[in-house]
Amino acid sequence: MAVALGPSGWWQRWRRRLSAREVSRMLLLLLLLGSGQGPRQVGAGQTFEYLKREHSLSKPYQGVGTSSSSLWNLMGNAMVMTQYIRLTPDMQSKQGALWNRVPCFLRDWELQVHFRIHGQGKKNLHGDGLAIWYTKDRMQPGPVFGNMDKFVGLGVFVDTYPNEEKQQEAQKRRYSPGVQRVFPYISAMVNNGSLSYDHERDGRPTELGGCTAIVRNLHYDTFLVIRYVKRHLTIMMDIDGKHEWRDCIEVPGVRLPRGYYFGTSSITGDLSDNHDVISLKLFELTVERTPEEEKLHRDVFLPSVDNMKLPEMTAPLPPLSGLALFLIVFFSLVFSVFAIVIGIILYNKWQDQSRKRFY
């Protein structure tokens, strides 16, 4: 005679057939499926990505504020809206920034930025653009798209105003076809703290590469992705409304330390635009490395780019303490007195020898 088992009896009977390891694996799989944070394979080969919530930001923008408990901090004129975070409004002389409070210690990562730049200005009467940062210092206002100059780390710039071109026009000069850039323009820069961003030339002397990106006043979403894998920096964009990534910058041999901060900033001057950030999503990428790559890809302590000479930074000497200054002065006086005494003794001996020779 068949006996029907209740829900608890069925579970007890089925569980006896499973090992403890199999049960733990099934529970982990159910947890990943339920949370939606399971690994997702990207590209060719064994590369998987995991969303890192502590470095990501999306609607409804929880954890954004000025307190020390917030994961993201606002600075300047930046403000939280319902559908976006506005770094700067379409007004003159404004600057704002948004910075992650948690340092990133990931080895390989990908940052996807959903942004929008729009305003009332007509062609070449708008500015200045926005920047995405991975730097040692955070919350430091300055002239480089709202951030400090001579930064340490990586900066990716979405520049909407051609300063160099306007200066050339004012001087009645013309670019050669192979030199002129079409704006808006995306460029990247790695800095060890020794280089200044050249505003008059739109960062041309220090850029790693760049591409034209028509991103203003579009009626569809615009995205930028920064991928750092095996010291290979890749920047792509999706600005055509086709949901396809298009290559912009690719640079091998980029060495970025771990423990830096992600952020984004913007600034306006005489010209202005609305600079909005809709989301920032950081993914940890897991990639396989050979033993040789493990040796080559050791942690670094200062940003650099292979085959690109950056001026070396000289650390400033620490100020002397009161005790150290006292000891230096004291021993200097003792040495001076000692030298004077020795000098007097030698002089007296010389005089005695001179008298003996005279007699």
Describe the secondary-structure layout.
Layout: H1 7-16, H2 20-35, E1 40-41, E2 48-51, E3 64-65, E4 72-76, E5 79-80, E6 85-88, E7 95-100, E8 109-118, E9 129-135, E10 152-159, H3 163-170, E11 185-192, E12 209-212, E13 222-229, E14 232-238, E15 246-252, E16 254-255, E17 261-267, E18 274-286, H4 291-296, E19 304-305, H5 322-358
Parallel strand pairs: 3-4
Antiparallel strand pairs: 1-2, 2-18, 4-7, 5-6, 6-18, 7-17, 8-13, 8-18, 9-10, 9-17, 10-11, 11-12, 13-14, 14-15, 16-19
Membrane topology: Single-pass type I membrane protein; Single-pass membrane protein
GO molecular function, one term: D-mannose binding
Domain L-type lectin-like: 49-285
Task: Describe the protein.
The protein is α+β, with helices and mostly antiparallel strands and 359 residues long. It has one domain: Jelly Rolls. The protein has 5 helices and 19 strands. The chain has helices at residues 7-16, 20-35, 163-170, 291-296, 322-358, and strands at 40-41, 48-51, 64-65, 72-76, 79-80, 85-88, 95-100, 109-118, 129-135, 152-159, 185-192, 209-212, 222-229, 232-238, 246-252, 254-255, 261-267, 274-286, 304-305. The radius of gyration is 31 Å and the shape is elongated. The termini are far apart. 28% of the residues are buried. The model is unreliable at 1-8, 10-18, 23-37 and 313-317 (pLDDT under 50).
List keywords for this structure.
Jelly Rolls
| Helix run count | 5
How many strand units? 19
Beginning-to-end CA distance, first to last residue: 144 Å
Total domain count: 1
- In the CATH hierarchy, what is the class? Mainly Beta
Please give the CATH architecture: Sandwich
Overall shape: elongated
Topology order in helix (H) and strand (E) letters: HHEEEEEEEEEEHEEEEEEEEHEH
Main location: membrane
Membrane topology: Single-pass type I membrane protein; Single-pass membrane protein
GO molecular function, one term: D-mannose binding
Subcellular location: Endomembrane system; Golgi apparatus membrane
